[in-house]
Fold each of these.
Amino acid sequence: MEVNIESLFPSIRQGGLATGEEDLINSTYVGIDFGTSTTVVSVAHFDVESKKIITEPLWLNQKLEDGTILSNEKVPTVIAWRNQNLLIGTGAANLKFELKKGKNVWYSFKMELGEDHGAMYYQSELDGNNGAYKIINPIDAAKIFFQYLNAQIKRHVSEKGLSTNIKYAVSIPASFEANQRRELIEALEHNGMRLNSQSLIDEPNAAFLSYVQNASEEGNSIYIPEDHYPNLLVFDFGAGTCDISILELGNNLNGVYSKNLSISRFEKLGGDDIDRLIAIELLFPALLNENNLTAEDFLTPEKRRIIQRLLKPAEELKIEICQDIALKMHERILPETASSEEFVSLGGVITIDTNKHGKITLTKPKISYAQFHEVMKHFLRTDYINPYRTEIVEGEFSSVFSPIETALNKAGIDRDDIDYVLFIGGSSKNPYVQAALKNYFSESELLIPRDLQTHVSEGA
């Protein structure tokens, strides 16, 4: 049997929408993929003439530091306060490593929801005493972020002449805990965003729905054999999480179904950790060497502050290498370049103020493909029990195979029992990750959507 939207939802088969068509016509549906680093919004409505549900990502306006407006379908989940101006999205992200987290820039607050620390951002310049904005804990940041999204969504609905009866669904990690879900709902309801019992959808399920819809339209549908119910592992590797779910696909009298067999434990592991390890083990030593200094010349708090300034160039180097290798990779097998001594460089000079040594500089930050390959090995170890630990600055870095094995063990199946591996999340673009999973799941078919960052919101 073919897996498609019609087979998953029997009520819309063969014009069966008639009973709910009036509600569909008079509603606009909004799916929000609220990500740790990037958020995407999609809008769906029922087209009366074609009798189809039309879904498309929403382009959102984002103010930059100089006041100009950028419109993009991807919005960095970052808030900044500078020169009495509130910036959300790209403008804020550009200041991410210049300003101080918790004081005048806020990011990764999705992963901090549910943590009961009181006034967590005790240095916040937005303490509620100097204007309309207040951010002293993660839920405050989420409320302001959703206020911005809601205004953008309503603007789009008005401009397109869509129904103002808006219904929302927000995708979340399958491993999100009850307290995290509760605070997310509170942030949504604070902004009048209508919710019901199905308003929160697990990201793996949203990704699966979106993939099914696109694959069906492209003639690449998944089929369920009569004598076998396939297992699908959803590999969700984002900026701050590596979330694994295993679904069983089957069919019964009601049509096709998907059933959750297991989810991995909640784990803070993501693409941001790759940036941090590059900064700690490659860029920081290069900085020390250029300025004739040693790690012992700095106390731990200052080391951490310096490494924070190196995260942006680390991310840029990572992206440049990954994009180059992705173009050269064939059938998810890494080319020889992937471990060569060739290097990429950003050019320019990074200047950092220090307490005792004045201004120190890193000229033309660079790393080789071989160095990046070594960094990635720590995240792709199959002997994942003990995380990799750094020495210059204390830190632990887990392997993506830790949550993978957790999910397999919970489901009570082996990796050879996985028929499909569906990739989602921006960090899943990493060709080193794709190659490692292809090798690990050698008997499985890899499913890689056109856009790894927008299809979750479309599914929602």
Amino acid sequence: MPRPLNLAFLALASLALAQAPPRVSQERLRDHLEFVASDLMEGRDTPSRGLDVTALYLATQCKLMGLRSVLPGGSYWQTIPLSQPRVEADSLVFEVNGKALQAGTDYAPRPTQGAAQGEMVYLGNGWVVPAQRLDPYQGVDIKGKIAVVNGQTPDGVSLRRGSQTDAVAPAQAALQRGAVAIVQINRLPGAASIESSYRQATQSRRASPPGEPGGATIPTVTMTQAAADAAFGQGAANGEMKPGTKLGNGRLEIKVTGTDVRTQNVVAVIEGRDPQLKGEYIAIGAHYDHLGLANQGEDRVFNGADDDGSGTVSLLEIARVLSLPENRPKRSVVFVWHTGEERGLWGSDFFTKNPPFPRENIVAQLNIDMIGRSRTSPDPDPKFPRLTARNEVHVVGARRLSTELGDVIWAVNKKTFNLSLNTAYDAPDDPERIYFRSDHYNYARYGIPVAFFFSGIHEDYHRVSDEVEKIDFVKMADVAQTVAMVAKELGNRKDRPKVDKPIEGGR
């Protein structure tokens, strides 16, 4: 269990700016990360006390470095309203062919208010993916009916973030076609995750952007595989049933009450030194949120040292280096610590929709997410083949909108540490579709050239074992310094990087 929060630690940690080195410092990265990824931050969930304390730490560091605010009232926090919906347990109804199912045992509701009844129709996995020619709704009339989907996902599509931009999730696809409710069969057998989901839905543990409770707008429940087998037969859960099969009649009722909460991006600016160019901005970003606390286990804290503590503290050091008189560029530099990335890119979506200055003044965006790990052997691990070596980093999207931005990054890298810049994730047929799955994409969809720096997935990704002692601070400092020098070059160039490629995915 995490210890009680000690704010004296925060105060002491904010006094370490004296005798700062002129380039990104491994020691300072470690000092910052030992705070940001400590158990005291309780996993930095969105929203949470630990995330707010981390935001306070970041804002304090920005003040101490002399970075200025561009937000109303001189604040460094860009407040984002959220709703924390809670399902009223006593109001729940879910019946299949007149038989009532047990909430928390047979099914869990999503926080999606409404009542529906009607014929139940099976629709396979429920995803519509034009690029894969997948459309289980073709030839099936779902209007006014309850859609039943099996909880599986097509290859190349992420449940957490739509990694294929033309993919339409079951909730949206069914709603678009007139369905009145959705029943999803749990992908895992047993009721343990159903129990957890039920507690979460009825105890108001998960927030959503206003108007998007749980990501769906019609009554939605998730059944255990055992309950689905009993109600519909085994063909529904295992995917052997044909889309369009009628499953009888169903009835759902879900009542939701909401509590208004909030989270925040942290935003700070180094003002450019050129009177003509300081109205343009180089944006550098990282997400400072993570996954919070696990439901059980001796170690319950998702510390997120690499994801994305590494990017979070690298931004602090990049800001310090670029604020030095010899490094301050002609253009301004805006640093955005995005919130809610793990929940669906909330912070970058909000910032790009509500920028504190004209969005068209953003010249380029450099995104840093997970740059703190390296493989420990010369040969890649078969389980994690894309985890990069110490002198290597993935650069994603640098030439997707602007050939010139890629040219700048490669030229600057050659003059600094000459890291091996891996572009494997930019392959058009790459199944992971990383370009669409982190905060940079919310800038790219507005035509802003982006580049995403990323070391790759490792064995501690999204596990409580993502701890500070596993971080490669040598690599992290080298990547951060390279990003700083790229930003400096972009900030000093006469012209902004030319956009010569089409926007992928759109707005």
